């Protein structure tokens, strides 16, 4: 099933309406990549150390270029949502909202469904919300601010997702922990996409463990992302 699904998503033939949506999102990407607006995020939001006075700084353009999914991979996510037609989608890791826009556009074209995307940096979420608003997707995409360990359980209390995109902290323990947050709540079709599974030795180990999990029905990878179907 999964291999055929990914193959269909890879070779998905976009309609004129779908192509128009993607062109609009790519215009937003271009706009963001040219931005020299500086995002400032206190590191204490993530370290949870009140004495941590470091403020992380990067421009919107730099963040968009380094953290947003490239068009080919983002189109795969778009096609997956179009083919699967999930009612609830959870994204863990918003960045500046490009992948949320792709998946939200797919839900909009499906005629229903909702995406909740979670991000720890308020500065990033402000940019992502602007992207969503500019694309008229605010009725489909909702952004929430906070750490996954706190916010995701609150999201899941309102209902489980059938499709999840995990694109947060690229570390072995964190990836496995974040997966365990969502797994008990998965609804059919029960597909989880893990980003950057070849990012580092840690992520390669995490992906190996995820694929070997007894709860996995099928797994594969595409464009640097790992996909699993769960029982």
Number of helices: 10
Q: Distance N terminus to C terminus?
A: 13 Å
Give the tally of structural domains. 1
CATH superfamily: Vaccinia Virus protein VP39
Give me the count of strands.
9
Helix-strand topology string: HHEHEHHEHEHEHEHEHEE
Strand content: 15-25%
What is the name of the CATH class? Alpha Beta
Q: What share of the residues lie within helices?
A: 40-55%
Structural class: alpha/beta
- The Cα radius of gyration reads 17 Å
What's the shape? globular
The CATH topology comes to Rossmann fold
- Which residue ranges are poorly predicted, with pLDDT under 50 across at least 5 consecutive positions? none
- Largest beta sheet, briefly? 7 strands, mixed
Mean pLDDT reading: 95
Q: Which CATH architecture is right? A: 3-Layer(aba) Sandwich
Biggest sheet strand line-up? 5-4-3-6-7-9-8
Task: Describe this entry's structure for a reader.
The chain is 48% helix and 20% strand. It starts with a helix and ends with a strand. The mean pLDDT is 95. It contains 10 helices and 9 strands. The chain has one domain (2-27, 65-230): Rossmann fold (3-Layer(aba) Sandwich). Strands 5-4-3-6-7-9-8 form a 7-stranded mixed beta sheet, sandwiched between helices. A two-stranded antiparallel sheet has the order 1-2. It is of the alpha/beta class. It has helices spanning 2-10, 16-33, 44-47, 60-67, 71-84, 98-110, 122-134, 148-156, 172-182, 201-212; strands spanning 38-42, 55-59, 88-92, 114-119, 141-145, 163-166, 191-194, 216-222, 225-230.
């Amino acid at each position: 099933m999964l291999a055929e699904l990914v193959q269909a998503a890879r070779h998905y033939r976009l309609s004129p309406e779908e192509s128009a949506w993607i062109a609009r999102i790519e215009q937003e990407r271009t706009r963001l990549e040219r931005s020299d607006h500086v995002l400032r995020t206190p590191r204490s939001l993530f370290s949870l150390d009140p004495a941590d006075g470091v403020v992380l700084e990067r421009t919107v353009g730099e963040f968009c270029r380094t953290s947003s999914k490239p068009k080919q991979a983002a189109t795969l996510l778009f096609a997956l949502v179009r083919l699967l037609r999930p009612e609830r989608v959870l994204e863990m890791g918003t960045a500046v909202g490009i992948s949320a826009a792709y998946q939200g556009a797919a839900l909009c074209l499906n005629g229903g469904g909702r995406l909740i995307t979670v991000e720890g940096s308020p500065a990033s979420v402000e940019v992502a919300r602007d992207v969503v608003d500019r694309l008229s997707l605010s009725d489909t995409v909702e952004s929430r601010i906070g750490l996954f360990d706190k916010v995701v359980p609150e999201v899941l209390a309102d209902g489980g997702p059938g499709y999840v995109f995990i694109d947060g902290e690229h570390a072995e323990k964190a990836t496995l922990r974040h997966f365990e947050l969502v797994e008990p709540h998965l609804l059919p079709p029960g597909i989880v996409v893990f980003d950057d599974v070849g990012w580092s030795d840690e992520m390669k180990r995490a992906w190996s463990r995820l694929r070997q999990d007894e709860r996995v029905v099928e797994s594969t990878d595409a464009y640097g992302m790992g996909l699993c179907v769960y029982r």
